Amino acid sequence: AGRSRGAAMGSENIGPRDVCVVGVARTPMGGFLGALSSLSATKLGSVAIEAALKRANVDPSLVQEVFFGNVLSANLGQAPARQAALGAGIPNTVVCTTVNKVCASGMKATMFAAQSIQLGSNDIVVAGGMESMSNAPKYIAEARKGSRFGHDSLVDGMLKDGLWDVYGDCAMGVCAELCADNHALTREDQDAFAIQSNERGIAARDSGAFAWEIVPVIFCLFANISNHSFICFPNALCPIYQVEVPVGRGKQPVLVEKDESLDRFDPAKLRKLRPSFKENAGTVTAGNASSISDGAAALVLVSGQKAQELGL
Questions:
Q1: In 131-226, which ranges are continuous DSSP H helix?
Q2: DSSP state, 283?
Q3: Which GO BP terms apply (predicted)?
Q4: Does residue 205 contact residue 197 with C-beta atoms inside 8 Å?
Q5: pLDDT per residue over 225-281, tens digit each?
Q6: pTM (2 d.p.)
Q7: In the chain, where are the structural domains located?
Q8: What pLDDT, in 10s, does the model give residues 36-67?
Q9: Fewer CB within 10 Å, N- or C-terminus of the chain?
Q10: For residues 61 and 91, is the Cβ–Cβ distance under 8 A?
Q11: Is 75 left (phi over 0), alpha (psi -120 to 50) or beta?
Q12: How far apart are CA 245 and CA 150, in angstroms?
């Protein structure tokens, strides 16, 4: 049986079915309706996959299977994982599977990928997750049956298919309130944790600790700086992915290289925010809850045997 190891090791200690992480990449995390909102989840996925393969020095034609997590799939088109894979240059003969396990979708996709290597089914697999919460559509749920007299109601796809507990018929924030009650977590506890988390994120960003994993994305009117998706600038820590978007004639290209939510952090304001889900004695706010974001991340997983064969 193969083993998954959490630390780097010498080649003499790697078994043939051990799972090796040889490539890692993620986009910056864009805020809701923010810098990355013009890109679909599948496009963000393609950016992360292509960058991870380049960093691993693995040719896309060698990939045997792709598992990619995605929750808000409405309006993305068929088989989102396959779209992301083909957009990254992976051949159309490669099997691709989209995984929806809500918040754990990317993690479950990675588990499937690792298990396929441990079982001997594959040697090179791409795994990860992608989401564009900004682009989740709103539905007119009854329109197909015919819209007659009266007003039609819109259903928020992000809430309906992502942030709503279908069993308890409540928002996920209400579930967080229940957890806080069950574990005696006060508003002060949650605010302190959120502040510490943001401060650590800012420190890591400012020290460059995140730079190695992030794929900077540049938006330009015409993507003709190079014949390739990735371009290199002097002093850049890694190649930059260029995207052709209508930024407006005469405007300078826009470079997105840092997580947006950290720029909005204000500890004083965070402590003053009103509860979002429970009016009386609520503890979960927009500041201490998970943010609504856009982004993607990808891993290239390889069996120990194949890693040694390819010199990875």
A1: 157-161, 172-182, 187-207
A2: -
A3: fatty acid beta-oxidation
A4: no
A5: 444 455 544 444 456 777 665 556 667 778 899 999 999 999 999 999 999 999 889
A6: 0.90
A7: 217-256
A8: 999 999 999 999 999 999 999 999 999 999 99
A9: N
A10: yes
A11: left
A12: 39
